[in-house]
Amino acid sequence: xxxxxxxxxxxxxxxxxxxxxxxxxxxxxxxxxxxxxxxxxxxxxxxxxxxxxxxxxxxxxxxxxxxxxxxxxxxxxxxxxxxxxxxxxxxxxxxxxxxxxxxxxxxxxxxxxxxxxxxxxxxxxxxxxxxxxxxxxxxxxxxxxxxxxxxxxxxxxxxxxxxxxxxxxxxxxxxxxxxxxxxxxxxxxxxxxxxxxxxxxxxxxxxxxxxxxxxxxxxxxxxxxxxxxxxxxxxxxxxxxxxxxxxxxxxxxxxxxxxxxxxxxxxxxxxxxxxxxxxxxxxxxxxxxxxxxxxxxxxxxxxxxxxxxxxxxxxxxxxxxxxxxxxxxxxxxxxxxxxxxxxxxxxxxxxxxxxxxxxxxxxxxxxxxxxxxxxxxxxxxxxxxxxxxxxxxxxxxxxxxxxxxxxxxxxxxxxxxxxxxxxxxxxxxxxxxxxxxxxxxxxxxxxxxxxxxxxxxxxxxxxxxxxxxxxxxxxxxxxxxxxxxxxxxxxxxxxxxxxxxxxxxxxxxxxxxxxxxxxxxxxxxxxxxxxxxxxxxxxxxxxxxxxxxxxxxxxxxxxxxxxxxxxxxxxxxxxxxxxxxxxxxxxx
Length: 588
Description:
The protein is of the alpha+beta class and about 600 residues long. Helix content is about 35%, strand content about 25%. It is built from 17 helices and 22 strands. It has helices at about 1-20, 30-35, 40-50, 70-75, 85-90, 100-105, 155-180, 185-200, 235-245, 260-265, 275-280, 290-295, 330-365, 420-435, 440-455, 540-550, 555-565; strands spanning about 55-60, 65, 110-115, 130-140, 140-150, 205-210, 225-235, 250-255, 270, 295-305, 310-320, 375-385, 390-400, 405-415, 460-470, 475-480, 485-490, 495, 500, 515-520, 525-530, 575-585. The strands form four sheets. The chain has a six-stranded antiparallel β-sheet with strand order 8-7-6-11-10-9, with helices on both faces. Strands 13, 14, 15, 16, 19 and 20 form a six-stranded mixed β-sheet that branches. Residues about 1-30 have low confidence and may be disordered.
């Protein structure tokens, strides 16, 4: 009996202890939490308050019943102020994800989510991110609530977002590399840049470049003069932008304007929420302000074009209507794009300068070929390569020899640019010297090859020499790897002459063979370089057939016009040099 009473007392004490802890309570859900004692929370706190994970216990109505210290710090709210309140009530700036919590309570399947927002805790981040894991609490078949385990992943999320942005920027730069700078023409590159920016970043874009030295007189009032090289806009703005500024015009920007500050400081300038006064300072012409305002333009971003330490120009981008304002992220992206494009523009400008110098040099060297004997009419043409292609080393020469003979020569120095043009002048000078002492074209080529080889010339050349001797009625040819000449008869029919080609000049130890044909009055000889007939993806024989199908007139000047019109490409990839000679009378 005593033992029974002792057991009952012991059992009673255990029950009271269980009730103090809230275990075995008859009610589930909110009723359970009415007997949730301070001692139970204290014991749970001893276990969980030391963990860095933020942990909370919620009842079936999603109200806080327990919050550890980590979660209180995360939310910036004392733990006691959480109890009895919902997540939305404690931290209204955070996605509560009540749909996920409700689903866990309903089916008992644990779930994990990512939520974001702001709590009352101080944070330098614009937006914070959390990873939450949720598990249902049950006792005796009854659902009591839910346990939430939350870890902040803001730093990792921020790094991921920065990595994604970096990847997007790299992808954008890679795409720009294939779409901007496809030629060595400066204005084409500017237009490609403007169109790319409109497709990716702006509603309208204008590219302006500093004028080349000596191309225009700078204003005397201290303003900055730029040349508008390109303009692009979305369809909604194109009708407004096009009449306000056309490519090729010179634009003066007043001191203190955004464009002037952008170049002076070497950094992007953002003008947001522009009013009439702001647009007036930025616009090239104050009369355009009303049109800009009517178009709804509200934001501008001006970025410098700088390459190799010097300014090339500026890019001005605008946004209008519902487009967002420009921000620092846009400025960084635009500056990356502008930096890449500026290199292409600088390359194009350098090329243009060299191209013009080489063309002028070639024209000067080719302008005064030697004069033939009076019984031969000779005409010349030179057409440089198309835009975006370096000038080559095509050349021609005429030398009046003894005994009424006339030497005609046409050559093509391998390579392009200024060095090829300089090498071409050496070939011309050597030819004049050698032709005065060597009797035949094969011996002339042999001597030229020897001289060039011994002087270590690093630019070989093809060459075709024809020595016309009307008094004897013959013409003798020799070729150093050059294309065969064509003879046009008085009836217009053309024939290729099978002159044996030897090695190009400058290779050394070469042999050349002469080839002689009759020299008849009224026949016209045509010499040409490969820029006239060569085409990509076309066999050279097909190109030569195109040339011989011409029904040419015998007059040299007219024949060259006809050949260029019917055979030469509109935008040649290589230089074209032509020589036409007509024999006026037979030898005596």
